[in-house]
Amino acid sequence: MKRLLLLLAVVTTAGAAAKAPVEEDILARTMDTASPYYYTALMMRYNAGDETLTDDDYHYLYYGYACQDDYKPLNTNPALERLLLLASGLDAEHPQRETLEAILATGREALVHDPFSPRVLNLMAFAHEASGNRAEARACASRMNGIVRTILASGDGLTQKTPRHVLMFDHALDVMDVEGLPYAKARIVSRTVEFVPFTTPYTVEGRKRKGLYFDFGRVYRNKPEGYTYQRDRTWQFNNLKPRTYK
User: Fold this and answer.
1) How far apart are CA 125 and CA 135, in angstroms?
2) Separation of alpha carbons 86 and 90, rounded Å
3) How many whole angstroms separate alpha carbon 143 and alpha carbon 122?
4) Which end of the chain is more exposed for a tag (fewer CB within 10 A), N or C?
């Protein structure tokens, strides 16, 4: 399992100013029915595959999810495990229709627990494309790109003071997979921040970096006493090449 399943469009935010989420701002704008970022309306547009959602929309959509009752980041997601098993046996060059249909059905189930999972949207985009449903593939691609851009824009991840902010542990690793950055086991460096080391140093702007920092504070808010998290295996698969939807 060495290749990213499906890299979709341009997700880089190089040179852009970081837009770290501010809790008071997120809560105020997503709870206000008169706001263009009212959460119910944003989620309806997202679920409908609205490709006109802006980066600002995605900012409030993604981080606003932490304020919703459905946000339960420490619950298990059995559908995701089933989805990864299906994908691991997938013949990327000659996929069977039954397998593609199972991936789509299981993916929809997995999104109920985590509607912003890059890995799930990635697999569903591939399954739709392989099934000939280009409009649905494009919609999944658009959603994945919006989420990845949002996380990348939240911080450069190069220092503990400028971490990338994520809502799920797996989202951090998914984004690193999108960037093609191989990683080792993460370690906690503060109450809300973890450091994910690279397997080999990576040069950023002429300087060697050893890893990236991620803020998992939203996950930890309601962490049960004594809870231990086990990370999933990587989601990369062989032989599936990047595609861009225009």
Assistant:
1) 10
2) 7
3) 9
4) C
> Greatest CA span in the chain, whole angstroms?
49
The separation between the first and the last C-alpha atoms of the chain, rounded to the nearest angstrom, is 28
CB neighbours (10 Å) of residue 131? 16
Q: Tell me which residue of 52, 215, 94 sits closest to 42, measured CA to CA.
A: 52
Which tokens is 22 given? 């501010």
Please report the beta strands in the chain, taking only residues with DSSP state E, as ranges in sequence order: 164-165, 187-188, 193-204, 207-215
Closest CA to 215 of 66, 24, 14, 38: 66
Write down the number of H helices and E strands in the chain. Answer: 9, 4
Q: What is the pLDDT of residue 222?
A: 62
Tell me the C-alpha distance between 94 and 81, whole Å.
23
27-81 pLDDT, tens digit each: 999 999 999 999 999 999 999 999 999 999 999 999 999 999 999 999 999 999 9
In this structure, are residues 13 and 152 in contact, taking their beta carbons and an 8 Å threshold? yes
